[in-house]
UniProtKB/TrEMBL annotation:
InterPro entries: SAM-dependent_MTases_sf (IPR029063). It holds the Pfam family Spermine_synth. This is Spermidine synthase. Keywords: Polyamine biosynthesis. PANTHER family: THERMOSPERMINE SYNTHASE ACAULIS5 (PTHR43317).
């Protein structure tokens, strides 16, 4: 593959255009700006390329057999592809407002067509979480909602996070990427803490992404058990899960200190 970036554009009117660049074997997705909205290594398309996106899978430390995984915001479909392929017992649902994103993921990021397990919907994430038909039905909710300016989550109100919590099953978990202006961090964390039983976050990774894990019911945490689970995740999924446990441990020590 050439290291010379190339681009392709999907620009149905009324929404930010979706474009790609390629560099050193990695394909990146953009929404009409230089901000990276997702990535896929062409030699390993089934893997999750970006570290912060890998961290969105932290729920695996606490749940091993989800029946329904929901993604709010498709991005480059990395989480959707991974969940669909690695959890064959689960239904995978996506709410993505921008049709350009859906089209570019089908064309260039290996997003499979909808079937009995996969349901990618062109719709607003707020409408999804407010729909009573979705309440109490979701084991894992992964939230990564950004527009082309990437200044902070598009949806971040207490009402939004309450609706997210309402969607979760009794042991359900939400992971979300809190990225953008510094002021958005505290706002999002405080609004999550208003409605979730427990909210934890890991240290900032590249480009100021912070991954937050919110629990409908606070778990009991035994780090020896979590490290054991992390080893199994590394072996079966090739994800750096021990780093997640170390990050959680550091977060708890900071909170207690």
């Amino acid at each position: 593959m050439s290291d010379t970036p190339t681009s392709t554009r999907f620009d149905a009117p009324g929404y930010p255009p979706a474009t790609i660049t390629e560099f050193k074997g990695v394909r990146f997705m953009h929404l009409g700006t230089s901000w990276v909205q997702g990535a896929m290594r062409l030699a390993k398309p089934d893997n999750i390329e970006l570290e912060y996106v890998q961290m969105m899978m932290m729920w695996m430390l606490f749940l091993d057999n989800p029946k329904h995984i929901v993604q709010l915001g498709l991005g480059s479909a990395a989480l959707t592809r991974f969940s669909y392929q690695r959890f064959p017992q689960a239904r995978v649902t996506v709410a993505e407002l921008n049709p350009n994103v859906i089209d570019i993921c089908h064309a260039h990021f290996g997003l499979p067509p909808n079937d009995t397990r996969l349901d990618v919907r062109e719709m607003d994430a707020m409408d999804f979480v407010l729909d009573p038909a979705n309440h109490g039905k979701v084991d894992v909710l992964q939230v990564d909602l950004y527009d082309e300016d990437a200044r902070g989550p598009v949806l971040d109100s207490p009402e939004f996070y309450q609706a997210c919590m309402d969607c979760l099953s009794d042991e359900g978990i939400m992971t979300t990427n809190v990225f953008g202006d510094f002021a958005s961090y505290d706002k999002n964390l405080q609004n999550m803490e208003l409605v979730f039983d427990a909210v934890v976050w890991l240290p900032e990774v590249h480009d100021a992404n912070i991954i937050v894990v919110a629990f409908k019911r606070a778990p009991s945490i035994d780090f020896s058990v979590l490290y054991e689970r992390a080893g199994a995740i590394k072996k079966s999924m090739n994800l750096p899960a021990k780093n997640w446990v170390t990050g959680l441990k550091g977060w708890m020590q900071d909170q207690q200190g």
